[in-house]
């Protein structure tokens, strides 16, 4: 096997794995950010209900 073949095989194996991992991390971060925003909104709603 030539070094070019080895590099090509590694590229073909690694690139889809990186793509899948990148999409999974993106989805995870979006869900985490949304949950954080919901918690902040709940705290603000509680604060606005308190009597002055």
Could you give a short description of this structure?
The chain has a domain at 25-52. The protein is 90% helix and 0% strand.
Descriptive notes:
- The chain is mainly α.
- The protein has a domain at 25-52.
- It is 90% helix and 0% strand.
- It is built from one helix and no strands.
- The protein has one helix spanning 3-49.
- The longest helix is centred in the middle third of the chain and has 47 residues, at 3-49.
- The termini are far apart.
- The chain crosses the membrane at residues 6-30.
- It comes from Anoxybacteroides rupiense.
- This is DUF4083 domain-containing protein.
- Keywords: Membrane, Transmembrane, Transmembrane helix.
Please write out the topology.
Layout: H1 3-49
Transmembrane segments: 6-30
Organism: Anoxybacteroides rupiense
Keywords: Membrane, Transmembrane, Transmembrane helix
Tags for this model:
single chain, 1 helix, rod-shaped, 52 residues, mainly alpha
Gyration radius over CA = 23 Å
Q: Count of DSSP helices?
A: 1
Helix content: over 70%
Low-pLDDT segments, ≥5 res: none
> What percentage of the residues does DSSP assign to strands (E)?
under 5%
Largest sheet: none
What's the β-strand tally?
0
């Amino acid at each position: 096997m030539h070094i070019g073949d080895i590099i090509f095989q590694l590229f073909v194996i690694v690139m889809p794995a990186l793509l899948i991992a990148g999409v999974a991390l993106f989805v995870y971060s979006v869900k985490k950010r949304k949950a954080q925003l919901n918690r902040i909104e709940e705290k603000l709603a509680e604060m606005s209900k308190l009597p002055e």
